[in-house]
Amino acid sequence: MEAVPRMPMIWLDLKEAGEFAFNAAVKKSAVSVPRDFEGCSTLRKYLGQLHFLQSRIPMGNGQDAAVPVTWTEIFSGKAVTHEDIKYEQACVLYNLGALHSMLGAMDKRVSEECAAGAFTYLRDHFPHSYSVDMSHQILSLNINLMLGQAQECLLEKSMLDNRKSFLVARISAQVVDYYKEACRALENSETASLLGKIQKDWKKLVQMKIYYFAAVAHLHMGKQAEEQQKFGERVIYFQSALDKLNEAIKLAKGQPETVQEALRFTMDVIGGKYNSAKKDNDFIYHEAVPALDTLQSVKGAPLVKALPVNPTDPAVTGPDIFAKLVPMAAHEASSLYSEEKAKLLRDVMAKIEAKNEVLDQFMDSMQLDPETVDNLDMYNHIPPVLMEKCAALSVRPDTVRNLVQSMQVLSGVFTDVEASLKEIRDLLEEDEAQERKLQELLGRVPPAPGSPPGLAEVSKECSKYLELHEKASFTNTELHRAMNLHLGNLRLLGGPLEQVRAALPTPTLSEEDKQVLQNLKRILAKVQEMRDQRMSLEQQLREMIQKDDITTSLVTTDRSEMKKLFEEQLKKYDQLKVYLEQNLAAQENVLKALTDANVKYAAVRKALAEVEHKWNTTVQTLVASYEAYEDLMKKSQEGKDFYTDLEGKAAKLLERARAACQASEAHRQQLLERELKKQPPPRPTAPKP
């Protein structure tokens, strides 16, 4: 796999700058940067100087020195203006992340962690209301994409370095985890509406990569099993890798040639591994092949992280050009307070993410979708695909009659041919019997001079026709069997819709079953309510932290009182923290209730699954009968043409057979008379007394 062609990566466009009353030369050098690492350095320096400027001069939203700042929104192309210097900082920070993503997508495969760091800092330290492309959902999506691509780069290097199979599998599994998070965001209706046209392309690529890197993970798990001489496990891992790769290939339609080349290469590797492993196990090792779900799942190893951004790092920003404008004490104190807020947010987010991970794993294991947990509504309607077939047959009322008539005509011609061939065969057999009688009578084989010609040719041709008839008879039988199989379905589809609906299976649930379902749906709704509340509280906390600016208070506070002021100010978050703690604590009870409800639901789930399977099978059978009609008609016509031709040939052959047999009989009579004349007359015998 170390030579596998590289997959393409997603990169982001840079925002375009508009109006901002700042030094023109500085502005130009900061917004028209080259697309390389020198451009990243320029953006970092400009970001740092903006930070120094806004900490001294009141240029924020609603402040005295605020000026209009205009940037173009990426997705719509519209110009967005805010009178807030932090908007300028946010846009520069976005471009820093976008430029790093662009560089990361190039051949050197670096810079993705820097992009994730820039977007993380932007999400956690700036308002999300500036523009659509800097909303919380879009930034979270960008972060997961960048982390996934960074982990993907690490995976490429690990395979090139021939790292241990188990480690490569875990790295690949983490790529899958990051892309799954990104895919969840892409499937969110709000995010999709924000992204517009590119959502579909990104989603297709990410979904394909999920299956592709899952296949890579199981390939290396199979290689590890091979190293441990667990030959049964090796087969199932390679088989799973092959299945997942086939899913990736299905999703890769329309992707560039580089993707197709990578998939073909990987298919050669995995296909070869699987065939070899299966053959060895079947003929040499004979180990039982376990079910995949009985093996321990591959846990991802997150070996990349969003690199932190420090806008005031002098090694990056260079000298503070505004150092003399305002005393730095207030700015330093504000930075310390920002760090306290960031620490608070990190602590809370660590707890939330831990609980969310448990919840996601639990829900994935349950495989319970609140929207389709019972599927009862679908049984109240005829599916569109079936309605389409019913509508098509309603305008063709003679469908069944035409098919039956066609098959009847075929049967009639078939019977005529069979009767003709049987009569020919009977004539030939009768002729042979007469020949044998003549031999017995004469006591020897009669001389053959003058024997009528044609019987041998008739017999040979009859054998050929019988062989053709026998082969066609099997086809004819199969055709009649197929017609009988589909005829009832076609009558059903052409009849009233009520009969079609009645033919589709429907579940029969007892009152107890219905209560079990309602209870399960109620608890699933509780789970969703808990999720929504958690997201809302997290969002409130982030917004509260972003709006929390105590610079004015810091200016009038003595340095010795700073710690006390911080403690007092941070108390405003206590109530939100309590609500979050209560939400997180409730999760254990909710999941326990869901577990109990799922146990009771197991029998109902099995019954519903069986009915759904029967329902789908019935629908597919009816659709197949409709689609088989044209084929049956075509084959019926072909059968009629064949047997009509064969009937003509058989009729002519019958006439020839009759003539030949008559000639043969006449010949035998001549022989018999000739032989009788040669014999002496019998001696007279004395009369009996």
Automatic annotation (TrEMBL):
Mind telling me which GO cellular component terms the entry cites? endosome
Q: Which residues are in coiled coils? A: 414-444, 520-547
Report the principal subcellular site. cytoplasm
Q: Does the keyword Transmembrane helix apply?
A: no
Picking any one GO biological process from the record gives: protein transport to vacuole involved in ubiquitin-dependent protein catabolic process via the multivesicular body sorting pathway
Q: Where is the composition biased (Basic and acidic residues)?
A: 665-678
Disordered, as annotated region: 664-689
Residue span(s) of domain BRO1 = 27-359
* UniProt subcellular location: Cytoplasm; Endosome
Pro residues bias located where? 679-689
Give the keywords, sorted: Coiled coil, Cytoplasm, Endosome
Q: Looking at the keywords, is Kinase present?
A: no
Against InterPro entries, the record matches this protein to: ALIX_V_dom (IPR025304), BRO1_dom (IPR004328), BRO1_sf (IPR038499)
Q: Give the protein name, as stated in the record.
A: PTN23 phosphatase
Q: Which organism is it from?
A: Anthoscopus minutus (Southern penduline-tit)
